[in-house]
Amino acid sequence: MNNFDDKVIYQIYARSFMDSNGDGLGDIPGITSKLDYLKELGVDYLWLTPVFESPMNDNGYDVADYYKVDPIFGTMDDLIHLISEARTRGLGIMLDMVFNHSSISHEWFQKALKGDPKYKDYYIFRKGKDGNPPTNWVSKFGGNAWEYVSALDEYYLHLFDKTQADLNWENEEVRKELFDIVRFWLEKGVSGFRFDVVNLISKPEVYEDDHLGDGRRFYTDGHRVHEYLKELNQETFGRVENTITVGEMSSTSLENCVRYSNPEENELSMVFNFHHLKVDYEEGDKWSLKPFDFQELKEIFDHWQMGMQQHNGNMALFFNNHDQPRVVSRFGNDQKYRKESAKMLATSIHMLRGIPYIFQGEEFGMPNAYFDSIEDYRDVESINYYHILKELGMQKDQILSILQEKSRDNGRTPVMWNEEEGHGFTRSVPWIPFCKMKGISAEGDLIDDDSIFRYYQKLIRLRKKNKAIQKGSYKIIDKNHKALFAYLRSFEDEKVLVICNYYDQEVLFDPARYELPELSSKRYTVLLSNYNELTEQEGKILIKPYESLVINIERQ
Fold this sequence. Notes:
Layout: E1 9-12, H1 28-33, H2 35-41, E2 45-48, E3 52-53, E4 65-69, H3 76-88, E5 92-97, E6 101-103, H4 107-113, H5 117-120, E7 125-126, E8 146-149, E9 154-157, E10 164-166, H6 172-187, E11 192-195, H7 216-219, H8 225-235, E12 244-248, H9 254-261, E13 270-272, H10 294-310, E14 316-317, H11 327-330, H12 338-350, E15 355-359, H13 380-391, H14 396-406, H15 442-446, H16 452-465, H17 467-471, E16 473-477, E17 484-491, E18 494-501, E19 507-509, H18 517-520, E20 524-529, E21 535-537, E22 540-543, E23 548-553
Helix pairs in contact: 12-16, 13-14
């Protein structure tokens, strides 16, 4: 059985990581040039967002050829060289596989459009209903989820953009094609895979209107999804030892995620879920400006930690990715307490039960972009939202303040390697502007012994040597505390207490109240603190603004 408990994964959004040829776009040789930096950080795997040939209507998540590298990122030789150079440093490469849908530019779909019956059955085509689409389902990107093809007098399903046609997993030939793709990349030396929205691949037997919602209840965690994932495992990566996998799960449930990730089920190594990243939504509205609900955040963490623990499931632990605002701006304080809150947020995630993910730039505290002009934005979702609100009469400044908090482009600005012109990312104009905040760079953190980067190194080293953090049970302490997220990790004789203050006010932590006599009697060791000291007041621990503490509780 594969064991990834001590591993840490680093996500690379390729177009914004490092530009090697001066065209303003990050590329594969650019990633290779930074392998020593990533090795120094201490991570184990590098997950690359899609680098396959694509029209880039959805930043590469619309794949036109799963066997080819898109020229904007480099060549196949560049990717093979990256895999080889990473391996010499003990790093594995994970590829992002988009198997719920393909681009309509894909050869399969182009043949389907010509009426080829074999390839039409690679996708989901249906006749309309009384002059309307087959169902009233809503696309994730807005509008109806069916697109009409006049030459065929039929509609095809696209749960995402109309240029992303859903693949028909009911067709055994489609599954064989996809399995061949995975085997191809395994033979190239890839060490793992991230499967995009993979819990949507099983569609219903009967397509019907949804009069209660947008249709997702009919295709999310579908009736054959576990069967398909077991087959994918058995036919591909399950045959190659130590291949790590993670599934992105859309609108999923704890019960299904336990099955996806329990080793006995032979499906995936772990799962992403996004429930904790909706705690600053007002009634499900991403674009609402609302302070994050700390109590709800803890409730969600506790629910998933306990549920996965009870049933031996495995979670990916993360706050940041290419579709999310930067967490130091979102749940932390990127002004007065940028370093402290960045370290605290990292601690609260890394010490949980599961596998931590670091998104590029997070390790030195990159904040939101703070763009002050719509011309700076590249995200289609953000630009569309801007124009919709403008037409509704909202003032430009109001709309921009929303985008500054919520836009996906906050996570997509280029990595700031140094503070020179081009920030060490490019010699020309970047495809998207840099973050507007100054005085932040990877280079600056590397020369500061108390930097966020150095703290991330300590977190990673702690995971690798401490069994309670790798394998231990989880138990929350005082779930209703208004400022602290505190929990215990326990394994055999080891016990680790984690205390994180999510606010800029001091808090007293009373060990006697929480039945932790070891703290009162000084039987403990501070393993890690973002203040580098522990302050006591009359037998209680003073938790400073955004402070985090990792404490080893000594046995009697």
